[in-house]
């Protein structure tokens, strides 16, 4: 059985995101935030995904300390930028190294992103193009299946690196320059190395 699990679209993912968003809005009620968004493959219909809910909280950098303090007080674990400027990662309450300890609770990756940062643009453009372009969505899904079921990659870093070519194609379709694509790819590889 592969280490990396892919699942077909589960309607519970959207429901679980909305519950997490409501909780985050309550935690951050006294702090100005710009948006809380469901990003990543679980937010895209008709796309195989690792069953992990990815969430971006967009803020102005001046509010970061207040946001961090509120999340930590609520039980989140701050991981830091992990090599990606303007994007701070948090593990959900009740988890160990990001893995929930409560039976039946799904893993969530929560990112606090500074307004205008490259990571936020990356997440949004990937989602937008994959929602709009059925051919690219199929190509991305097929590449995921190849990596997990044919090439049998077991390391998340290897899995992510194996998607780089199609991710670049998607972001290029969104109007990204080769320079920006190189920066994002380099930052992502550095960040994955730091999280080992």
Give descriptors for this structure.
47% helix, Beta Polymerase, domain 2, 7 helices, five-stranded mixed β-sheet, two-stranded antiparallel sheet, 196 residues, alpha+beta
Describe the structure.
It is a single chain. By secondary structure, this protein is an alpha+beta fold. It folds into two domains: 11-117, 2-Layer Sandwich (Beta Polymerase, domain 2); 125-194, no CATH class. The chain has helices spanning 11-27, 64-73, 118-132, 134-150, 156-162, 164-173, 178-194, and strands at 35-39, 53-59, 77-80, 87-91, 95-96, 99-100, 108-114. The chain has a five-stranded mixed beta sheet, with helices on both faces. A hairpin with a 6-residue loop joins β3 (77-80) and β4. α3 (118-132) packs across α6 and α4 (134-150) runs antiparallel to α6.
